Amino acid sequence: MLLSVAVLNPLLGFERIFGSFPRAKRARPIAANDWLHALLKESVLQIWKARKAAVREELASAERAAKASQDKLDRLDEAFLFDRSIEVETYDRHAEKASLEPA
């Protein structure tokens, strides 16, 4: 509870919340801004890593869909050109249908 109050009310001093720490004469004092900066940096880094993983998955999914579509067109071409197992009208209809499908 005390931590959330410190985040919501920046007027509360770091030392008031956490107490004072013994310091060396020339040591830089620990400030609330440093702590908040580190917290923000870690949060942004976690979000960036999660988004990067999501984009990789989306890309892989799109590549799989494009490959499946291309494989379908290749099978259609093979059936028409090499096997002669389908008619021209059937080939045209399936080729048009395959080209209109979203990848």
Shape: rod-shaped
The count of helical stretches stands at 4
- N-to-C SSE string, H for helix and E for strand: HHHH
Q: Span from first to last CA?
A: 50 Å
- The overall strand count is 0
The biggest sheet, with number of strands, parallel, antiparallel or mixed sense and barrel status, is: none
β-strand percent reads: under 5%
* The number of domains: 1
Please, what is the oligomeric state? single chain
The helix-and-strand class reads mainly alpha
Radius of gyration: 31 Å
Q: How helical, in percent, are the residues?
A: over 70%
Any low-confidence stretches, pLDDT <50, length ≥5?
Answer: 1-6
Mean pLDDT score, rounded?
76
List keywords for this structure.
single chain, mainly alpha
Overview of the structural elements:
The chain has one domain (2-100). Helices cover 75% and strands 0% of the residues. It has four helices and no strands. Helix 3 (32-83) packs antiparallel against helix 4. The longest helix has 52 residues, at 32-83. Mean pLDDT is 76; it is low at 1-6.
Set out the fold topology:
Blueprint (H helix, E strand, L loop, with lengths): L1 H7 L5 H5 L13 H52 L4 H13 L3
Helix pairs in contact: 3-4
Question: In short, what is this structure?
Answer:
Helix content is 75%, strand content 0%. It has four helices and no strands. Mean pLDDT is 76; it is low at 1-6.
